[in-house]
Amino acid sequence: MNENSNRKQNKGGRTPKSNPSIHRHVFRLTDEENAKLLSLFEASGMVNKAKFIISVLFGREIKTVKIDKALLDFYMRLTSFHSQFRSIGVNYNQVVKLLYRNFSEKKAAAYLYKLEKQTAEMAVLCQKIIQLTEDFEANHLKK
Q: What are 120-141's pLDDT values in tens digits?
């Protein structure tokens, strides 16, 4: 009888796991997505579907995309500015043609001189814009 009391009492049941899986996530699939998942599961040769999904999720590199609204706004404004700049170039060509067609050589040259001065100022402004854009790209886009 003494021998029975010295033995540990077995309460029965399963031995507790050292790191139990207690977090649950649920997602829904369409018929096509489910068929693709099942075919991948069968091709893997794994027995447990949950372990297969975990290995797919954490076994591969998952890429995340962060969309910065300020960057997107900057890009949109830069694109619209570029299109406006192109339209200025088209208008510039049209103005030069009209000057030579409708005015005398002397008058056309005088107007063209004024236009060239404005164009030089616009070129300086364009260089500043290009420099600002390069600085922005260096500081914010190349991460």
A: 888 888 888 888 778 877 877 6
